Amino acid sequence: MSASEDLQLSIPTTGTAGSPKSHVVYNIHIALPLRSYVLSKRYSEFADLHSSLLATTGVAPPAPLPPKHFIASTIQSSSLIEQRRVGLELYLLSIRDHEDNGWRSCPEWRQFLGLPVYKKPSGFINKGIGTPQEWNDVLRETKQLLQITRTHLIRRTEASSVSESHSESAGAKRALVSAGIKISNMASSLETMEVPEGEKRRRRDLVEVLKQERDGLEILSMNIKSQSPSLDRSPPHARNMKSPTRRVFGAIKETEKTRQLDNSGLLQLQTEIMSDQDSHLLEFERILARQKELGQAINQELSSQHQLLSETDTDLDRTQTRLKIATKHVERLKQGNN
After folding, report:
1. What is the distance between the alpha carbons of residues 22 and 272, in angstroms, rounded to a whole number?
2. Which positions make up the signal peptide (predicted)?
3. CA-CA distance, 66 to 12, in Å (whole number)?
4. pTM for the full predicted model
5. Using CA atoms, how far apart are residues 138 and 206, in angstroms rounded to an integer?
6. What does the pLDDT look like over 223-240, one tens digit per residue?
7. Which of 48, 80, 112 is the endpoint of a domain?
8. pLDDT for 30-86, tens place per residue?
9. How far is Cα 273 from Cα 265, in angstroms, rounded to an integer?
């Protein structure tokens, strides 16, 4: 399946297996136009896939493989399992959505996903970004993708069902993967793009800001959990327990928003407020990044103007010197004629 839209990939769940010894497996849900199936893979199989793709194509996949944990045991930590699950899903999606078909056409990739194997892998397209205008267009598209990611994450915190939460998470992941690919292309194209050195530095700073923003959103997407009441993950015996009907506030004043909430409702409201504050902080970070860009652009312009003034001053000194010499020659000619 060469078209990425015909292959749907996700890793929504994990499990454990006991042979040869207890380990975590990641359940890859694969949907094709005519069939759907699930493959359970352990982390070492992902690592083998990564090594094979790198050896076959000579180019590392667009997203890094989640690191191996040498100190903490993954199987004993649900948070480490969840972080690795998200990272492995992003790894697969980055290969599926990349504009170059080289990794997807490798036999190792197709065997890993149980797809038909082609005899020869297709070469990389490597369209690149040729002109400064194309670079600016990709910059604008990348900023739009990051904004789309923020929108999905905000909607995810407001999701009222499990399916809605998963849908928003998938949308955020797709936008993050696409943004990462574009940022990588922007950075590599600057090595060969013919622009002044000052402009190249400014563009590198823009790429660095985008990288930091994308990394921040990726961390946020891994940490934010939906606040919908229907997504209660507490044990069954805890859910069946009756919530206390009265709450003690002391000197804290009730509001219309909190009056009808029990303890769990208050905790949920507080978490929603904190998530909203996080989104505002991200927006503030984006504004600061823009201010930094403007400051760097102004500094570059001032440096250019200062250089022009220095060159003009030097030319003026030379012209005055030549004018003095010419004046002396004229005076000598006059004296000789007299």
Report:
1. 37
2. none
3. 16
4. 0.40
5. 12
6. 654 444 444 444 444 444
7. 112
8. 998 788 899 999 998 999 999 888 877 778 888 888 888 665 566 778 888 899 999
9. 12
